[in-house]
Amino acid sequence: MVQLRRDYQRFVKLDTEIIVAGPEKPEAFREYWAKENLPFIGLPDPEHKVLKLYGQEVKLFKLGRLPAQMLIDKKGSVRFVHYGHSMSDIPANEEIIDLIEKQIS
User: Fold this and answer.
1) Are 68 and 81 in contact (CB under 8 A)?
2) Which of 32, 51, 54 is nearest to 42 (CA)?
3) Which CATH architecture has domain 2-104?
């Protein structure tokens, strides 16, 4: 999430909202968001409802959810999906920003 915070203003300039869903309960999520001063939306998903909607995997031996990034346009169409195999398997912001720029041009 640090990388998303770093380039948040670039996403805002592209009329893009970042929403991060996580498995924590609302109280824990709220505390983490306040502590880290994250400027984007945090969506607690302890019952994995969002996870199930978008096909994000849970691997118990990897201690929870595997990373997933999605671009969803304003009409609700999924334009890009990346399911990671580990927490180090996350697309760089530049890759996501390039995809957004291609979608709006």
Assistant:
1) yes
2) 32
3) 3-Layer(aba) Sandwich (3.40)
